[in-house]
Automatic annotation (TrEMBL):
Organism ancestry: Bacteria, Bacillati, Actinomycetota, Actinomycetes, Kitasatosporales
Gene3D superfamilies listed in its UniProt record: Tetratricopeptide repeat domain (1.25.40.10)
Pfam families registered for this protein in UniProt: SEC-C
The protein's name: SEC-C domain-containing protein
UniProt cross-references to SUPFAM superfamilies, sorted A to Z: TPR-like
Length: 339
């Protein structure tokens, strides 16, 4: 699917089939490709086919980057077409495993919430927040924000008083409409009002909420810059010395990546990312293109292909997160410090 293609114009069945074929061609990227294919199967209404893709990943025997995420998505999908008992069992297994990635927690908690299991949803959100944010910095990492927002939303529906985690959710919320307003369970009543001012206020709130959902759900095609780790760059230049004009040194390569991304960001380009190359992968790409790996014009095409296969990592990282360059230093004290 092209980034500029409206969602309503997508043939989800055809897109799922395309992604499944791509996964067969690039088995090293099968996890990300098949997860996207399963999402299209769900959107097309073919939920059993989506479950089959989740099972394919779980039974593949290949270690997964995030098996808990695959199980969480499977549980959410199963519940939507009548397999509640199996979905609940998977959700309990995920809660027991206590993964350190926020995404599986968000999915299973929202599945419980969507089926009016508000107390269980609240317990799940709270378990995740305590596990992942107990030792977090004052500003929680961006991937954990949906946990805080989801917990706040469920607590509003339960009529619970604000606590310290709700206050933290408020502090990272950036929309003009407050979380209390967005998550007010009585808001829906105002839609039956005949007062134009009340209806206009509700439309403003709905637009803000829709903007938040679009931001959370949108995964447009990233503008990605190619990064070579030091050992890979050394191997690349040894095999193809002419590329030394592109990469005079590894330090210069890293500095060029950061400066290029900063320049793109300052020009208003959004959704920036970094893809990490390997020599075998690059050589396979060049062979598929019928070109020599020594051809420097292939490098941006290689980066674009990696991004299309879901290999891009968002830039910039959170200030306290490990730097994208692979060092153990936080981004803010490594490449996050302006030159």
């Amino acid at each position: 699917m092209r980034p500029d293609m409206p969602a309503e114009n997508v043939d989800h069945t055809a897109e799922a089939a395309r992604l499944e074929r791509t996964a067969d061609l690039y088995p090293e990227d099968a996890e990300s490709l098949l997860l996207r294919a399963a999402a299209h199967r769900e959107l097309s209404g073919d939920r059993p086919a989506a479950t089959a893709l989740y099972d394919r990943l779980l039974a593949s025997g290949t270690p997964l980057d995030n098996p808990h995420l695959v199980r969480a998505l499977k549980a959410s999908n199963l519940w939507e077409y009548g397999h509640e008992a199996e979905a609940r069992a998977i959700i309990e297994g995920i809660r027991t495993a206590a993964p350190r990635d926020p995404a599986p927690w968000v999915i299973v908690a929202e599945a419980l919430e969507a089926h009016d299991e508000l107390e269980q949803a609240h317990e799940t959100f709270t378990e995740a927040v305590r596990l992942l944010l107990a030792d977090a910095p004052a500003t929680p990492p961006r991937p954990t924000h949906p946990l805080l927002f989801g917990r706040h939303r469920v607590r509003r529906m339960l009529g619970a008083d604000h606590d310290e985690w709700d206050a933290l959710a408020d502090s990272v919320h950036t929309l003009p409409i407050s979380l209390d307003e967005l998550h007010d369970p009585k808001r829906v009543w105002s839609l039956g009002s005949e007062n134009p001012a009340e209806l206009e206020a509700e439309l403003i709130r709905l637009r803000a909420e829709l903007g938040a959902y679009r931001e959370a759900l949108s995964r447009p095609f990233p503008v990605a810059v190619l990064h070579w780790p030091a050992p890979e760059l050394a191997e690349l230049l040894e095999a193809y010395p002419s590329l030394a004009e592109e990469y005079p040194s590894h330090e210069a390569h890293l500095a060029t990546i950061e400066s290029a991304l900063r320049e793109l960001a300052s020009s208003g380009t959004g959704n920036l990312g970094i893809v990490t190359g390997t020599v075998p992968s690059y050589e396979a790409f060049a062979a598929a293109e019928g070109a020599s790996p020594a051809d420097a014009t292939l490098l941006p095409q290689y980066a674009t292909t990696l991004a299309a296969r879901g290999r891009a990592v968002a830039w910039p990282p959170d200030p306290g997160a490990p730097c994208w360059c692979g060092s153990s230093a936080p981004y803010e004290t490594c490449h996050g410090t302006p030159a």
